[in-house]
Amino acid sequence: MDRNQLRRQVAHMRSSLIEQNYLDQQQFVQLEDLEDDSNPNFVEEIVTLFYKDSSRLFQKIDQALHSIPMDFARLDDYMHQFKGSSSSIGAIKVKNECTQFKECCLAGNAEGCSRAFQRVKQEHEALKRQLETYFQLRRQAGLVQRS
Q: Residues in domain HPt (predicted)?
């Protein structure tokens, strides 16, 4: 497949991620606009940092969900941090699930928090798979440097 075809595929995949509400167009394109010759892998690096940070926050949330009594204020704080990180990369579905989790915290609904956390993790993982494919296509198309 030639580079032009690959570049069209990259553009199509980005559009698809936006249309399916995985990504916020304005936020994600704004991140891509920050890439230049001195930092051609900027978006992938930011997303990689997001996933590393997510792992740390997920551990804290998981521990807090199993504490007795459950500290809903702490859970809300952790999810607030995660929601902010999700917003910074334009992860719409993840952010929406974070909002549901926060609502369960406000209601003091432990069962709801646990279910919402599972949905947060599912959307988080689904986005990760999509973005891995997207970044792989970008590398194949020569739009970024290989790591």
A: 39-134
